[in-house]
Write a structure and sequence with these properties.
With 443 residues, this protein is α+β, with helices and mostly antiparallel strands. The chain folds into 3 domains: 168 residues; 149 residues, Yope Regulator, Chain: A (2-Layer Sandwich), CATH 3.30.1460; 107 residues. 51% of the residues lie in helices and 12% in strands. The strands form 2 sheets. Strands 1, 2, 3, 4, 5, 6 and 7 form a 7-stranded antiparallel β-sheet that branches. Strands 8-9 form a two-stranded antiparallel ribbon. A hairpin with a 2-residue loop joins β1 and β2.
């Protein structure tokens, strides 16, 4: 174990664990996939509707995820699309296309359940909640002559994302409902679940305990930063699903809700939500840690300018805490700028990889526990002030991430001389500042 912990700086020809961090992004499709969209659109305009749909499903399919299946016999076809804990199942022919997702079983009719779904129907554009016998589901129907790629994409995305959120919430909120169609869910290894649980509890505990040492009024802004950064870290590194993911989202929306509540009250509400995770039995929490396949990103892409503004604003607000020796808060605020962007936007893959490198430098003990051979910084047990980065490995990794994109973006680079390695807060500031100014111009 000691050898494992203290030998991270050595090169190792070992395969890293296959663990996905963060949410699925569908905005980095290769050229051959984007060409399939154009092909589907062309075929639709030529009224080759079934062929258009076949090209469209080819566009959706991510071979690495194995997320979309389409079977076709003449003009008849069937399909499955994975999204988190749910599967869209559908069929079609030369006349129509029908897609459906199972939500829950309702053995006895429940007026409160029906009322909620009726209300939610009003905010749906393409799909509808439905009751088929004792089975609650969501459905989308279209005649084939209007099933152009744009309509199909946004309709299936609405169906997938809404259902993936609602199934667990319905079962959680209404005891009369039973879970349905969950046999395809693949749990992660118990060892990985245990590691994620331990670090989840560790990060919540250390953040909430530190907050208790602060003046709640004077440091209300800093406390908000700490709580939000924590939930964005949980979302990226732990990647919770179902009800646990909903709690993370609740913290985010609590702070950004357009209401008149003061920051201290919002901080209290966010803290209570995190305490509910603390109090959750381990066996219950384990149910929300599983492997999933996705087809649609739950957030949209954003320009580099907007992403850079998030980083710049956070680093600017960090300065006071750094200069007044509140280094724990300052470090988290640096993390906040880029983690907010990672949480709210679908980032380019190169930027997401740089963000993961940033997290590996900041949390080497977590990645080491998961079995990663290179964590880019030495693990210093019970010491938050000592920082020993693996400088050469960090610079090498940056170049490895950016090099494949230089043909498309000739000015995409990070000058290693601008990075500071004397302390974690200086590294975080200089590294995120370099991410802020990345040039994605194609000329």
């Amino acid at each position: 174990m000691l050898e494992k912990i203290f030998s991270w700086g050595k090169k190792k020809d070992t395969q890293e664990p296959s663990i996905r961090f963060g949410r699925y992004s569908d905005n980095n499709k290769p050229l051959e996939k984007t060409n399939k969209w154009g092909e589907a659109d062309k075929l639709f305009k030529e009224k080759n509707y079934v062929q258009s749909i076949e090209s469209f499903f080819d566009y959706l399919r991510d071979e690495a995820e194995d997320n979309v299946q389409l079977k076709r016999e003449g003009n008849d076809f069937s399909f499955e699309i994975c999204q988190g804990s749910k599967i869209i199942r559908g069929r079609g022919n030369g006349e129509e296309l029908v897609a459906e997702i199972n939500l829950a079983r309702m053995p006895q009719t429940s007026v409160p359940v029906m009322r909620r779904l009726l209300e939610q129907n009003f905010v749906l554009y393409y799909s509808r909640y439905a009751l088929d016998g004792d089975r609650l589901c969501m459905r989308f129907y279209t005649d084939i002559q209007t099933a152009n790629p744009n309509k199909l994409y946004y309709a299936l995305k609405e169906l997938a994302i809404k259902a993936d959120k609602q199934d667990d919430l319905l079962v959680q909120d209404f005891s009369s409902l039973e879970a349905l169609d969950t046999d395809h869910i693949i749990p992660i290894a118990t060892e990985e679940q245990e590691i994620k649980y331990q670090f989840l509890q560790k990060w919540i505990k250390e953040t909430l305990e530190y907050i208790q040492t602060l003046d709640q009024e004077k440091f209300s802004g800093g406390i908000s930063y700490l709580l939000l950064t924590l939930v964005y870290r949980i979302d990226y590194l732990i990647t919770p699903e179902s009800s646990l993911q909903s709690i993370v989202e609740k913290v985010h929306y609590t702070y950004f809700a357009k209401d008149e509540k003061p920051a201290t009250e919002k901080n209290g509400m966010m803290t209570d939500a995190l305490k509910s995770i603390q109090a959750m039995p381990k066996e219950e929490l384990f149910k929300f840690l599983f492997k999933s396949k996705s087809t649609f990103a739950i957030v949209a892409p954003q320009t580099q300018k907007i992403i850079g503004e998030s980083i710049s604003a956070a680093n600017g607000n960090m300065a006071w805490y750094r200069d007044n020796n509140y280094h724990f808060i300052g470090k988290q605020i640096c993390e906040y700028g880029i983690s907010y962007a990672q949480y709210c936007y679908s980032l380019p893959s190169s930027l997401s990889q740089l963000f993961q490198l940033f997290m590996m430098v900041n949390y080497p003990d977590y990645f080491a526990a998961l079995g990663f051979s290179e964590t880019y910084a030495a693990i210093i047990p019970d010491n938050t002030t000592v920082f020993k980065p693996h400088v050469n490995e960090i610079v090498e990794r940056i170049n490895t991430i950016l090099s494949p994109w230089k043909t498309k973006y000739p000015k995409l680079e990070i000058n290693a001389a601008q990075l500071k390695f004397d302390s974690i807060i200086h590294f975080n500031q200089s590294f995120t500042a370099a991410m802020e100014t990345l040039n994605y111009d194609s000329i």
